[in-house]
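Team,

Forwarding the record for the chain on the shared tracking sheet. I've put the sequence and predicted structure together so nobody has to dig through attachments.
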Amino acid sequence: MSARKPGLPANAAANAVPCPLPPKPHEDFDACWQAVGARNIEAMANLGIYYEHGYVVSLDYKQALYWLHEAADDRSAKAMRELGVMFVNHWGVEQDHHQAVGWYRKAIEADDKYAMTLLGYVYEQGWGVNKDDEQAVSWYRKAAAAGDASGMFHLGVRYENGVGVEQDQQKAIAWFRKAARRGDEQAKAELKRLGESPE
C-alpha cells in the first residue's frame, strides 16, 4: 500500500467537483478532498491556495507548497503563479525574487493573465530583475489586454503619475473605470478619491 499524501484523508474518492474559490461553506469541503484524491488539477491548485491563505483550513505553508507543486507539475498556471507569490512573500520558503520571476514566467506561458500583472510589478519594484518602468508598463498593458482588472488598475496608476508613459489623467481614469467595472476595489477607491464616477 502506498503512503498517503500529506493532508489527504484515507477515504478521499474520485468524481467530485474541485475546491471552489472563493471557498463555499465548510460542509462542502469533503467534495474538495474527493476531487484532490482524483488528482483534479484545479482542486489541487485551489487546495494549495486554501492552505496558503487559511481559507476553510488552518494556514499551513508546508501544505500549500506541497499542493501547489503537485498542481504545477500537472501544468496548472494558477499554481505556478501562486508559487511565485510565496517566494516573493517569504511564505514557507526563503524569499527569492529570482525564483518568483521564474514561476511567474511559467504561469504566463501557461496563459495566466494575473501573472502578467505580477511580473509587471516585479519590474516596477526591481525585484529579481533590473527596475524597468517600460517593462512594467508593457506587462501591465498585456495583462489589461487579456482582461485582468489588476493590470488595468496598475496601468491607470502609471498614466496618473506619468511613470513609464506620458502622464494622461483621462487615460488614467478610463483604465480605473475599466478595472472598477471588473470589480477591482483599488480602482473603485481611486475613482472615489478623484471624485469620478465608476461609469
